[in-house]
Design brief:
Layout lengths: L2 H9 L4 E4 L9 E3 L4 E6 L4 E5 L4 H11 L4 E2 L17 E4 L4 H14 L12 E5 L5 E4 L16 E11 L4 E2 L2 E3 L24 E3 L6 E5 L13 E3 L2 E3 L2 E9 L5 H4 L8
Antiparallel strand pairs: 1-2, 3-4, 4-13, 5-6, 6-7, 7-16, 8-14, 9-13, 9-16, 10-15, 11-12, 11-14
Length: 261
């Protein structure tokens, strides 16, 4: 997708969609916040979004997900497995009015061609002291990117749903993305990191990172390798929003377990 179209779509995020209700959130109104958009890198495309998840949405997600977190898994030839490279906890979330509002926001940001059925079930991940996710990419090897599940992961959002006041560590590192130099980035990035380490986003509640996983040829871009660095104190809860190249089958979208790769 073109950067101009993407940024134009981002401007449209700041609007009121009206009231969406269900039994669990009958007083919730889907209002998209005035998100600030900062382009961090053009190639690969990485964009930072300030004020992407509202306080009401964050409180709701934290409340409904708390009982259901379980040890995260990664994909392997033997199916989804626990691994020392990913020691966080994760859960999917019911598509109530809050989740649908966030889904809608993520699609509008990506442009009018993005469709709801291209989204994987939203996933929350929780990191406590010592927990991390070692270097990996969100794009998948061919055996995991079939037409049944919508092809490969075209784009990713990682949003910070909760960051406790005592949290240290827990940044999101992209070792192969060149870090911008202007000192104004230091509220977003870890400016004390050596430039050889790429860039590390600070965990800031309510904000999000967006990036494109695939090259223009439609293959995985190795420069999007990233890691959830270890939390050294406190708790961080993040949210993954993954958009596939094509519609995801209803069987996958409705399954109880998330696509936790």
């Amino acid at each position: 997708m073109g950067l101009f179209r993407l940024l134009v779509a981002a401007v449209l995020v700041a609007g009121v969609e009206g009231t969406t209700t269900d039994d669990a959130t009958d007083d919730f109104q889907c209002i998209h916040p005035p998100t600030q958009v900062h382009k961090v890198s053009s190639s690969p495309l990485v964009i930072y979004l300030q004020n992407f998840i509202t306080p009401q949405e964050r409180a709701h997600l934290k409340q409904v997900s708390e009982p259901s977190f379980r040890r995260s898994v990664v994909a392997s030839h033997d199916g989804a497995q626990r691994s020392d490279i990913r020691t966080s906890q994760s859960t999917d979330v019911h598509r109530d009015a809050v989740v649908r509002c966030i889904e809608q926001r993520s699609l509008r940001f990506q442009g009018f061609d993005s469709r709801e059925d291209q989204l994987e079930p939203l996933q929350l991940v929780k990191y406590g002291p010592g927990e991390h996710y070692d270097f990996h990419t969100d794009w998948l090897e061919p055996q995991y990117s079939t037409s049944f599940n919508g092809g490969n992961r075209m784009t990713s959002f990682f949003a910070y749903v909760h960051v406790s006041n005592d949290t240290t560590g827990g940044g999101t590192n992209f070792p192969l993305v060149i870090s911008p130099r202007d000192e104004r980035w230091c509220g977003i990035l870890e400016c004390d990191e050596p430039y050889a380490s790429g860039l590390t986003f600070r965990p800031v509640e309510g904000n999000a990172i967006f990036w494109e996983n695939l090259t223009p040829a439609g293959v995985g871009d190795p420069r999007t390798e990233h890691a959830g660095l270890p939390v050294t104190a406190g708790v961080k809860i993040g949210m993954n929003i993954w958009t596939r190249q094509a519609p995801v089958s209803e069987e996958v979208r409705r399954q109880d377990l998330p696509l936790d790769f």
